[in-house]
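User: Predict the complex with nicotinamide-adenine-dinucleotide.
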Amino acid sequence: MQYNPFENAQAQFDKAARELGLDQGSRALLRRPMKEFHFTIPVKMDDGGTEVFQAFRIKHNDARGPAKGGIRFHPHETADTVRALAMWMTWKCAVVDVPLGGGKGGVICDPREMSPGEQERLCRGYVRQLYNQLGPNVDVPAPDMMTSSQHMIWMLDEYEVLMGGRYPGVVTGKPLALGGSLGRNGATGFGVVYCLRDLLRAEGIDIKATTASVQGFGNVAEHAARLYTELGGTVTAVSCWNQADRRAYTFRKKEGCHIAALAEIKDHFGSIDKTKARAMGYEVLPGDAWLCEEADILIPAALENQITPAVFGSISKRVRVICEAANGPVTPDCDPLALERGILLIPDFLCNAGGVTCSYLEQVQCNMNYFWSLEEVLEKLSSAMSKAFAAVYGLAGERGVLMRDAAYMIAIERVRDAVKMRGWVS
Ligand code: NAD
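Assistant: Here is the predicted structure with nicotinamide-adenine-dinucleotide placed in the model:
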């Protein structure tokens, strides 16, 4: 079965809107993006030719503040994926209560096949096409799939050339030397574990007595696994992609994976070296073995649509919690199955909101031109995530609904209030 991410996002919205009894005007406004930019970027390539790339920037809603969201570079990017991700950004910013709206961008390209110079010209071209729609108070991009802090700095520089000034708040995810925030790198993974920590505490489960199985070993997964093990949990399996073999593997150690040691033998794309892992005593299993691992917690932190009804039955009876660290790793039609099994699912736009929360902290620091210590940033991040988690967990208990539905209800109500106060909807 093919899952269209925008249709998924709209179906989830419609369900929560029904539950909330949302008025017709807000429903009509919030179920689609407010603005879409579809444009082309001509880029001079190193061989002297010109290639024209198709690009998008989609603002779902900016009633609560400037639109916020990453720019993805991917050969299979689609307008519908960008639309869905823009919509999820609106709910994500609202559920953690940062004063930002939702946006997302994308370019159909494969940066792995482009030289650094070609990528720089593409980034500058993106901004040239869109600069009057960007800005610290308008729309603020960030790195995302296959874009990095270097891409953001090229975009920032082009924007500042065109605007004739310094605007460090126009992008986030900047390097520390140019206005980045300490803690941004690990923020999404840490946010996942702050939610998990609070859930286990609320359920009376000692984190030290739990085990977890993780899909992915990139930015989000590695930092989540690190903090989880620091808090006393045991990661027994980690799965990641192997580009050379064009397949995924699961690395398993029953007595517990050593996350820092695994990080030493992974490459820039989050692939673990299987020969070295074997030498370190890891079992090397098929890529989907992480899903069947007999663990208390599953942390899918790689890709969307990984847990579908077709594979739900292979999840171990022991699993009590699923943390949706990736965007959309569990398809919505699994929600009733999780409910039936009593599995507690922390929904993606709450679970992985640590990144955007830290981006907001980065913007605040840029505006003050004064930067906090790592401890201060993590303290603020932890307390923002705890506050958001408590509200979602509390409402889910009160209304007898899933945490996903509760998170949607909180986020949609906040955005609904903003559009009403602005008079966009009667
Ligand atoms: P990343 O590129 O750093 O890492 C991705 C990981 O997934 C890699 O370890 C890769 O080997 C693994 N992977 C890819 N295909 C796989 C497969 N078939 N089986 C097993 N593993 C596979 O990406 P990331 O930044 O860690 O993001 C992961 C997810 O989290 C994505 O869904 C992303 O949209 C979401 N997310 C990321 C952030 C962030 O701040 N980085 C914020 C919010 C959401």
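The pocket of nicotinamide-adenine-dinucleotide is lined by residues 188, 215-221, 239-241, 248, 270-271, 287, 301-303, 325-327, 352, 355 (CB under 6 Å).
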